[in-house]
Amino acid sequence: MSADIAQAVRTPLRRPLDPRALAVPLVVFAALALLPAAAAFGATSYVLSLGARVMIFAIAAISLDLILGYGAMVSFGHAAYLGIGAYAAGILMAEGVDDALLGAGAAIAASGLFALVTGYVSIRTKGVAFIMITLAFGQMAYFVANSLSEYGGSDGLTMASRSTLLGLKLLKNDLTFYYVVLACLAGSYLLCRAVVAARFGRALRAIRENPVRMAAVGYDVERIRLVAYVIAGMIAGLSGFLLANQTEFVSPAYMAWQRSGELIVMVILGGMGSLVGAILGAVAFLMLEETLSHLMEHWKVVFGPLLVLVVLFVRGGLTGLLAGGKRHG
C-alpha cells in the first residue's frame, strides 16, 4: 500500500484536458481584463480602484489557499505577510528608494524570510496548536509594526507617492497600475497552479490526507509543508507591496488577526482547494462588503449570517456552485 502511494505521487497525471476546467478561470480573467473598458462608461477612477483592491486581496487569498486548501494548514497569521510586504514598500520609500522592482523584491524577500523562520516552528504543530501559533506570530508582527515610531507607529506611514518603474512614474496612472496588478494576479495564479500540478503539489495533497503514511514511505513531510508555507508567504508579501502602492499608505492594521480571518473567509467562500475559487471568494467578499456598507450602517449584521449560509449550504463554495459540484483550477 505504501509503495502504491509513493508511485501515485511520483507519476504525473495524464488525464485528458477538460475544456470545462479552463472555462471558469478564463472567464474570470477575461472579465477582469475588460473591466476598465466597462468603467469608461461610469466612475472610472472608483471602478479601477475597487478592481485593483479586489485583485490585490485575491493574490493574498490564492497564497493562503495554497496552504489551507491544499495543505490543510489553517493560518490565522497570514495577514502578517501582507503587512510585511506593505511595510517593505513604505520603509524603502521613506528612505528614498522608490523603484518598484527593488520594492517588490524586498517585500517578497522579507515576507519569505519571516515565513521561513516562523514556519519552521509552526509546521511542527497541528490542529488548534498550529492555528494558535500562527496567530501568535501574526500578532507579534502587528505589535512590532505598532512600535515603529520612526515609521508612523500605530498611526501608520503615508507614502510620498507610488513606486517608480525603471525611473518612470508609470504606476501613478490608475489604468497602468490596474493592469500591473492584473499581471501579478495572473502570475501568482499560474505559479500556484504549476506548484499544485507538480509532483510537489501531489505530495502536499497526500500529506494533507495522511501525513503519517507519507512519512512512512520516505517523504520529508515537514520540509514539504515548510516550502509551501514560504511560497505562500512570499506571494502574500507581493500583495502587500501592491496594497501599499494602491493606497499610498501603510498601517499595522494590515497585519491584524481580523484581516487574516477575512482571508480565510475568502478562501472558504470561493471553495478551498480551488485557486480560481480564491479569486472568486475575494471578489464576492469585497463586493458584498462594499455594497452592504453603502446600504446600511450595521451591514455586518447581514454580512455575517449571509456568509455562514453560503458556507453551510453551498458545497465547494462558489466554484462548486458554478461547476455543479466539480472543482476547477
Provide a descriptive summary of the structure in words.
The chain crosses the membrane at residues 21-41, 47-68, 75-94, 100-121, 128-145, 177-198, 226-244, 264-288, 300-323. There is one protein chain. The chain has 329 residues and is an all-alpha fold. The protein has a domain at 42-256. Helix content is 72%, strand content 1%. The chain is built from 14 helices and 2 strands, in the order ααααααβααααβαααα. α2 (19-39) packs antiparallel against α7.
Q: Please count the helical segments.
A: 14
Fraction of helical residues: over 70%
Going across the major beta sheet, what is the strand order?
Answer: 1-2
Rg calc = 20 Å
Large-scale geometry: globular
Number of strands: 2
Beta content: under 5%
**Uncertain residue segments:** 1-6, 12-17
First and last CA, distance: 29 Å
Calculate the mean pLDDT score and round it.
Answer: 88
Sheet having the most strands: 2 strands, antiparallel
- Helix/strand-derived category reads mainly alpha
Write the H/E string, N to C: HHHHHHEHHHHEHHHH
Pfam family, one: BPD_transp_2
Membrane topology: Multi-pass membrane protein
InterPro entries: ABC_transp_permease (IPR001851), LivM-like (IPR043428)
Main location: membrane
Quick rundown:
This protein has 329 residues and is mainly α.
Key phrases:
329 residues, mainly alpha, two-stranded antiparallel sheet, 14 helices, membrane, transmembrane helix
Layout of strands and helices, then pairs:
Blueprint: H1 2-10, H2 19-39, H3 44-68, H4 79-94, H5 100-122, H6 128-146, E1 157-158, H7 174-197, H8 199-209, H9 211-216, H10 221-247, E2 249-250, H11 257-270, H12 275-295, H13 300-313, H14 317-323
Helix pairs in contact: 2-3, 2-7, 3-7, 3-10, 3-11, 3-12, 4-5, 4-6, 4-10, 5-10, 7-8, 7-10, 8-10, 11-12
Organism: Chelatococcus albus
Subcellular location: Cell membrane
Keywords: Cell membrane, Membrane, Transmembrane, Transmembrane helix
